[in-house]
Amino acid sequence: MDGSFRGHRGGSEMGQGLNIKCMQVAATVFGIPIEMVTMSEASTEKTPNAPLTGGSQGAGVHGISVKVACKEILELGFGQRISGALRYRARSTSRCTAPNAASLPRAACTGAACVSEVNLLTGSHKLVNVDIVMDAGVSLNPAIDIGQIEGAFIQGYGLLTTEEILWDEEGRFLTDAFQKYRIPTTATLPKKFRMMLLDKPNTYGVAIYSAKGTGEPLLLLGQSVFHAMERAVLAFAKNPQKVKPFASPLTSAKIRAYAKQYL
């Protein structure tokens, strides 16, 4: 035995860093280098009935399970670790070893400021500057979390400005290709994209090492771009008080229509 650890966790790794974060938790509990930790992908053979992966709670729910399992193995002593791991594997089929996802309180806090340029003649728009501050608690992995935050923001930006689903009068689907259903690309990224995790985050004792989710909360920040574009149109409206709320997604076609109606 070389003191390395191999774990089996629930949850689905889909680029959000669930696997590496669970490895970090195990390495922290055992006090060993992360290079000595291996975490297998989820399998119903080893971890059946695992909670769903979503709601920005994957690392929290499954990370706590890993932490509890590792602590139990340590409490059994070195000579009993193998049998202890097997015993925990059997117990981990029940959710009693980790908090139910629905029971975790939501404590996400984030904000964004953006500058967007809008051409009222063509309806085209360009995201110029974006600044985001996020209270991610004590981040398990800042590099992964920053990537999650940036990606979630851009996804929300597309959701509220370009991604429109259309049907014709006979119910036929029109936006059936990426040439018609426009998603954000590298060309739509802002010229300046600044992202910062809060220097002095609030502690969050319920979560794994006080870490907070960084997925869906940032998706909602796409509203900042929507309202920036909305204000750009309203700035030139003849009677802005009479303008009705704009509908999302605020596509180029809608911008041209609103400009024609209110300017």
From TrEMBL:
A GO molecular function term, named singly, is:
oxidoreductase activity
Q: Enumerate the InterPro entries for this protein.
A: Ald_Oxase/xanthine_DH-like, AldOxase/xan_DH_MoCoBD2, AldOxase/xan_DH_Mopterin-bd_sf
Note one Pfam family from the annotation.
MoCoBD_2
Q: Which positions make up the signal peptide?
A: none
Q: Any idea where the Aldehyde oxidase/xanthine dehydrogenase second molybdopterin binding domain is? A: 2-75, 108-190
The protein depicted here goes by the name Aldehyde oxidase/xanthine dehydrogenase second molybdopterin binding domain-containing protein
Q: Which organism is it from?
A: Steinernema carpocapsae
